[in-house]
Amino acid sequence: MSKPLYVTKPELAPLDEFIPLLEEIWDSRVVTNCGPFHARFERALCDYLGVERVALFANGTLGLVTALQALRITGEVITTPYSFVATAHSLLWNKLTPVFVDIDPVTFNMDPDKIESAITPQTTAILPVHCYGQPCDVERIQRIADNYGLRVIYDAAHAFGVSRGGRSILDHGDLSVLSFHATKVFNTFEGGAIVCRDEKTKQRIDHLKNFGFVDEVTVVAPGINGKMSEINAAFGMLQLGYVDEAIRRRREIDGRYRAALRDMPGIHCPPLGGETHNYSYFPILVRPDCRISRDALYARFRAADIYARRYFYPLISDFPMYRGLPSAARTNLPVAARISEEVLCLPIYPQLSEQDVDRVIAVVKEAV
Ligand SMILES: *Cc1c(COP(=O)(O)O)cnc(C)c1O
């Protein structure tokens, strides 16, 4: 039996370079509570990403939950059903009501044409996702937000290092939230960050992620424990030195897939937007005119020990805690419903060899 191929595998910097950093932590006995590595990693991330301020988190979900609190979002929030479930869960954790709008059939991002008709007097914010690292139409979303006085928080969990027009995609909206989970392009095992614009908001976020403490005796909000540990921050510092090479390797894999799958009948590879893409996922659509159904292809992959994933199926709006919402109706989300029935994400990660990629391609070829 050939070795199993997963849709992703975390890229890890060399262990022998991590040991001296661990020794520093052991010597100092500063292991958490925003110590020296936390501060160094925040600065290094700003430099790498080309943004002014970041606040590190223990994971991306706590970042999303806190971002909504930092801006005091209330009532209804317009968001996408085509994402990882944490996007909408962050709203429920804040007792906010998600309002789902359909996605664009090319980018799989929230369709800006659908936003205005979803706005009500209760709407206070828009929570879009740069799905698969594909930039949202940030200018149009901002114009709508400005017209209606809404805040914009991007779930940028897939968008590490993506830029357009020489500007980081994270430098849009009020806040952007990153995830450094092991499955993402850039990982700190677990981790996340909020990218923010002004010092006052950064301070509020820093208080909220530390129980609401401002100083030893002052608590200003019912904050959470969202802090990133020194171990994760030190590892993040190290990982930053290797992420360019990882993305370069991903680009090669993306190119190999694209060239091989281009002419396969019924298989569609969505084109990439953004000037610097991060190749975080390799989604394909198995169209209705394909000889094999999406789920049959998924099963064929499994039989060949290849664990392709149906990201994003089911839609968030189909989970029990969301499906009763008026906006969760399938008739409101026809494009998202169709894409979620056709999509399959293929393995893509730096350690994947050309032979591995060809093994994946061979399964598709044989099936179609
Ligand atoms: C991974 C992911 C999250 C959650 O991030 P964690 O760091 O795992 O908490 C949120 N939104 C999207 C779109 C994601 O892919």
Can you put this structure into words, describing what you see?
With 368 residues, the protein is of the alpha/beta class. The chain has two domains: 15-239, Type I PLP-dependent aspartate aminotransferase-like (Major domain) (Aspartate Aminotransferase, domain 2, 3-Layer(aba) Sandwich), CATH 3.40.640; 243-367, Aspartate Aminotransferase, domain 1. Helix content is 35%, strand content 15%. A seven-stranded mixed sheet has the order 2-10-9-6-5-3-4, sandwiched between helices. The chain has a three-stranded antiparallel sheet with strand order 13-14-16. α2 (36-49) runs parallel beside α7, α3 (60-70) crosses α4 (86-92) and α8 (243-261) runs parallel beside α11 (354-367). The longest helix has 19 residues, at 243-261. The protein is globular and about 65 Å long.
Topology:
Blueprint: E1 5-6, H1 15-28, H2 36-49, E2 53-57, H3 60-70, E3 76-79, H4 86-92, E4 97-100, E5 123-127, H5 138-148, E6 151-155, E7 163-164, E8 167-168, E9 175-179, E10 192-196, H6 199-208, E11 213-215, E12 218-219, H7 230-240, H8 243-261, E13 267-268, E14 282-286, H9 294-303, E15 306-307, H10 334-342, E16 343-346, H11 354-367
Parallel strand pairs: 1-15, 3-4, 3-5, 5-6, 6-9
Antiparallel strand pairs: 2-10, 7-8, 9-10, 11-12, 13-14, 14-16
Bound molecules: pyridoxal-5'-phosphate.
